[in-house]
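[job 0412] stage=complex_fold ligand=S-adenosylmethionine status=START
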Amino acid sequence: MSQYEYTLPLMPKSATLIDPHGRQIKYIRVSVTDRCDLRCNYCMPKGFNDFQEPEDWLNFDETTRIIAAFARLGATQVRLTGGEPLVRQHFPQLVKQITAIPELTDLSLSTNATRLAKQAADLKQAGIERINVSLDTLNPDKFKQITQGKLQKVLDGLQAARLAGIQPIKINMVVMKGVNDNEVPDMVNYCIENNFTLRFIETMPMGDTGREATNQYLSLQVVRQQLEKQFELIPTQMKGGGPARYYHIANTNVNIGFITPISQHFCETCNRVRLTVDGTLHLCLGQEHSYPLRELLREGISDTELEQHIIKAIALKPENHEFSDNPTKLVRFMSQTGG
Ligand code: SAM
Ligand code: SF4
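[job 0412] stage=complex_fold status=DONE, emitting structure tokens
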């Protein structure tokens, strides 16, 4: 018997997935691998270069089973992420399995787009409607410096996604002082030309790499004030916008969003939890509270028991992260938890 095999009180489904702080959990981010073909200097630990798929990773049926249990309990949105999800073998097959879960209304993907030129059409066919793509610079040398990779692959991947009819396409740009902050207007213009939504992100102190990068931290309040000198920004809302605060750029089709976990945190509206590839539920990106599900699945628990364990896990969700008060606390890397 595992240490997590309790006698669980039966709870009505209608009262489920509301955490102790009154927030209803609707959204699961699922990391399908902690591996990646890039090495963004704020994310991936150096020297990490293993593409094996170990036994302790959830297989596609196990991943789908956990998501389906969440969906029966009222979750409606799933984002597939990593690491880089497109390095997971046979990934479109997982997308197909998740698309078949009837209660879900939104399935999206975060990717670095290096492999999207080959996979965009398959992914769209499997059920991916919208994607977020990391892109911090349009300068090939700087791209190499930040990620160790080739910019052209990403640009090709983005065009393939557009041709495949994936819409909206959102660009995520981590704005780093002295690295790419001078490229913010260029990135806005690139997104206007291509009809992409653009979101700026503040650097978070996740793992050693994230912490080392905090000397490049720049408050997005500053970025917004600079942009307002060049563009007319009109506050707006976006479907599935998550924690970003959005503005419409006047006289264009484009919205830009600001994700400000450090300068203006958004914990009070947090509606999400994260499932990592080893089958652990993480209740907060910036805290250690977690609940392991893999062993329970492999011991043969029923679907009802799985739902009860998920409800118990949600009861552990902390009120907020401590990135600012306690930046040395978190040892997990973003690539492990799933950004
Ligand atoms: N590989 C995919 C990608 O790059 O989009 C998905 C996973 S990646 C971990 C998800 C997001 O996390 C990316 O937009 C990335 O820029 C962001 N990210 C990673 N480390 C970060 C950090 N220390 N601070 C802020 N954002 C970070
Ligand atoms: Fe890879 Fe994404 Fe992390 Fe960059 S941000 S290293 S692309 S997982």
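Residues 36, 38-40, 43-44, 82-84, 112, 134, 334-335 surround iron/sulfur cluster (ligand 2) (CB under 6 Å).
[job 0412] exit 0
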